[in-house]
Amino acid sequence: ANTLCNVKSVRTAAKAVPVITTHDGRTIRYPDPLIKVHDTVKLAIATNKAVEFIKFEPGNLAYITGGQICGRIGILTHKEKHPGSFDIVHVKDSVGHSFATRRTNVFPIGKGKQAWVSLPRGKGVRLSIAEERDRKLAAKSKEK
Asked: What is the DSSP string of 67-117?
């Protein structure tokens, strides 16, 4: 069994042991040296070892974990660095809607368009109020 963990810090512990800390508090010793902060690690739960990892870079599939657009899924299009303020990440969903959020709210969940986890029914696409209403009315008319 595996789980996805977001890397929160990369450091060296006692006796120069390289260590990464994940979003859920796990500490992984001797990780791949290419793993950096904000990357996602596929972790084997039984051994607590990093099996694979996803870089936090444009072109990868990401899940939004906070803010007003929480729960949406899309492809990272680009990152903006703002020294002294919050870094901004732009994401585009499968329907074509583009949105932006803070870097801390983004969790990479797949390489390219291939997700490493099963996606919810709507594939992380949020409908507008009008689209949602139309879909509900269509479902009601089918019931009758």
From this structure: STTTT-EEEEEEEE--TTS--EEEEE-TTS-EEEEEGGGEEEEEETTEESS
Of 90, 96, 104, nearest to 125 by C-alpha is 96
Output the pLDDT for position 19: 96
Task: Tell me if residue 131 falls in helix, strand or coil.
Answer: helix
Q: Is the pTM of this model over 0.85?
A: no
Which amino acid type is present at position 47?
T
The pair of structure tokens assigned to 102 is 């803070």
Helix (H) or strand (E) holding 3: strand 2-12
Does residue 100 contact residue 91 with C-beta atoms inside 8 Å? yes
Task: Give 141's DSSP letter.
Answer: H
How far is it, in rounded angstroms, from Cα 60 to Cα 103? 14
